[in-house]
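A note from the maintainers: we've had questions about how concatenated examples are separated. There is no special marker in the raw files; a new sequence line simply starts the next protein. For clarity in this README we add a label.
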Amino acid sequence: MEIFDLKIDILSLVLLGTFILSLLIQLFYYLCFYMRVPVFKGYKEKAGKLPVSVIICAKNEAENLRKNLPTILEQDYSEYEVVVVDDCSSDDTELVLRQFKEKYPRLKTTQIKQDDKFSHGKKLALTIGIKAATYEWLVMTDADCYVKSKMWLANIEQNFTDDAQVVLGYGKYEPRKGFLDKIIRYDTFFIALQYFSFARAGVPYMGVGRNLAYRKSLFFKNRGFATHAQVLSGDDDLFINEVAKKSNTRIEISPESHTYSIPEESFNDWTNQKKRHFTTSKFYKTKHKVLLGLEVVSRSLFYISFALLLCFKVFLLYVIGAFILRLILQFTIFKNSMKHLGEKKLLLFSLLLDIFMPYIQLSIILVNSVTSNRNRWK
C-alpha cells in the first residue's frame, strides 16, 4: 500500500511539474507574442501613393473571376494594374478575361498553354505573372478571393515605405453555418494571430497568398522560388520564411485591408487543404519550427496535465486558479484580436477548439505522412 501511495505521489508531482511548466510556456506566448495584435495601432510612418501590380493566378477559375475580379479592378486607387495568369485553364477563363479586358484597361493577362510533356505548379504561374508586372510593389491574391472595400489596395499600400519589403495581410473566410465553419475560421484566425504577432515581435515566418505584398526586386534577389521549387506548395509561406526579417516586414490588419474567400464545404476538402499546407512547414527555419512546435506541445500538455490533476484531486484550488488565469488572458486577447480582424460569433467556439485543434492537426499530419499524397495546387 505504501509503494502504491508513493507511486501516486511521484506521479502527482510529475503531473504538477508538467502543468506548471506548460502553463509558464503558454503565458510566455500570450504575453510576449499574441498580445501584440490587439494592442497594435498601426505604424506612424505612412507611404505615398506608389504604383502597384496585383498578381492573380487562375486555373479553371472562370466563375470565381466573374464574381471576384471586379472588386479588385474597381479599387479607389490611381495607378495600379491587375495581372492575371491563365494557367492552362480548360474552362471559360480565357473568354472571361477577354471580356473584362474590354471593360477594364488596367487588366493585363498572360497565359500558360497546356503541355502534356511538362507539368508544373502554381509557382511557375506566379513567376510568369511577376515577370509580366510593370511595377516594383506586388500585391498577391487568389482568383477565389474578393474584397469588400474599394480601399483595400490603399490600406495595403500605406505600408510601402523605404524600409519595407514585405507586407502581411489577412485573408479571411466568409462565415457559414455549421461546426466546420467554426473550425476553419478558428484555424485561420489562430494562424493569423501567430504570424502577425511573431512579425511584430521581430520573427516573421510566413504569410498567406490570399493577401500578401512584397517587392519585385526582392523576389528576383532571392532567385524567386528556386530553393523550394521541388515543393508543390509554399509559394507564400516558404518564400516569406526566406526573405522576411524584423527590419523589412510590416503587417496590415485594418478591416478595409482584408480579403474574403468561401470556405471548404466538407471536412475532407478542408483536411486535404491542410495536408498541402503541412507539407511546407518542415522546410521552415529551425527557430520557427521550434517556436511553433513548442507552442503546440505546451498547449497539449497543459490541457492533458490539467485534466489528470483534476482526476487525482491534486492541489485543486491552485490548479483551477492557474487554469482560470490563462483562460482570462486567452479570452481577453482572443476577443480583442477578433475585433481587430472582424471575426464574429467565434469567440466561445475558439476556447473549445483551442483544446482539440492540436489533436486534429496531429491526426492530419499522421495521415499525410502515411498516405504521402501528392497534392497539386489545382
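[label: protein 2]
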Amino acid sequence: MRLRRNRAGSRRDGGVTVSMVQFILSGVAALVVVAVGGATVLDRIGRAEAIRGAREVTRLVGGGVMERYLTPGLVNGRESAMASLDRMVRKDVLLDPVVRVKIWNEHGQILYSDEPRLIGEVYDLDQDKREAFTSGDGYAEVSTLDGKENRFEHNYGKLLEVYLPVRSTSGQPLLIETYQRYSSVAASGRRTWTAFAPVLLSALVLLELIQVPLARSLTARLHDRQLEREALLKRAIEASEVERRRIAADLHDGVVQQLAGLSYKLAAASTRAATNGSRELGAALNDAAADTRQSIRQLRSLLVEIHPPNIHSVGLHAALSGLVAPLAARGVTVDLDTDVDDLAPDVEVMLFRAAQEGLRNVVQHAGASSVSVKVTMDADRVVLEVSDDGAGFSAAVRERRSAEGHMGLRLIGDLAAARGGRVDVESEPGRGTRLRLVAPLPARPA
C-alpha cells in the first residue's frame, strides 16, 4: 500500500507541476501582451497629448504673442512691419521644438516666413488649410512635406504641422502655420508611458504572484479529485469482478450441474425407450438431451463472458480465442492475432474487457461476415484493435445508444483513461466499425 501511495503522490505532484508550469507560462504571456498593449495605448495617449500641447503652443503664440504684429502693414508687405515681426519670431517663437513659422492669407499667399525665400509666394491652399479658414478651428497633423512650399523643411526630418486661424488687427482672416519637431512629440509619448509603466508592470506582476498559490491550490484539488475518481472507478471494477465471479460460481455449481445431470438422464431414458420398442419416444428424449447439452454450452459461453478464466494463467490468446469461438460457430470469419507477451494482469483484463465489448457489439448490431482482433505492443504501449465489415453506424446512433443506457464503450473508455490511455471508435454506415484501445505500459524495472 505504501508503494501505491508513493506512486499516486508522484503522479499528483507531476500533474500539479505540469499544470503550474502551463499556468505560469500562460500568465507570463498574458502579462507581456497586456504590458505591450498598455505601453502602446499609453504611448498613443502621450503622443495625442503632445499634439494637443503643440496646438496650444501655436494658439498661445498666435493669440498672445504674434497677434499685435499682424498689422495692415504686414498684410500689405511693408518691410518695417515684417522686420518687427521677424525679430519677435526669432527671439520668442523659434524655440525648440518650433523650427518654422508661416503666415498665410486666404488667397494662398505667404505673407511672412522665417525663411525669407518663401515670402510673397502664392500656392493653392490644400484641403486642411481651407477647412481651417472656414471652420476657425486649429488643426495639427504630421506633415508629408511633399508640397512646393515645404521644400526648405526637408532637412528637419519628420515634422508636426499646426494651423491656427487668426485675424489681423484690421480684421482680415489669416492663418498661422508652425512646424514643430515630431521627435518632441514621440519623446512626450515615451515619457508618458514610461511614467506609468512601472506602476502597470508592478500591478501585473503582483496579480500574477497572487494567482500562482491560488492556482496551485486549485490544481492540486483537481488532481486529488481525479485520483479519487480513478480510485472509485477501480473499486467499482473490482466490485464488479467479485460480483461476476459469485454469479458465475452459482451458475456453474447450480444450474449448469443440474442441466448436465438432466442431459445424462435424458440420454439414458432415450436408450431404454429405444430398447423397449418406443422409437418415437426414444428419438424425442434424444433430441431433448441434445437440446440440453446445447443449453449447457451456451451457459458456459455466458459464464466466460460474465467472468473469464484466469487470463494470466491461461494466456490472453487463449482467453480471446474463447471470446471469438461463438462467432466462428456462426460462420463468421475470425482473424485473431495477439503478438504480445508478459503483460501485467490488470492490462490483460482491460484488453479482454475491451475485446469482449467490441465483439458483443459485432454480434448484436453489425451483421458482419468477418472480424479481426489484433493485439500489438512496443516498448511503451499496447494496442488492441477489433474491426469488422458489418453495417457500421453513425455518430448520432452511438449517442442514442449511450442515452438509452448502453454504457459499455464509455466504461471501457473510462477504464483506459484511468491508465492514461484512450479508446477510439471509427465507424460509418455500411463501412464497418473499428474499435481501437491504446494504453501505456508500466515502466519495466531496470
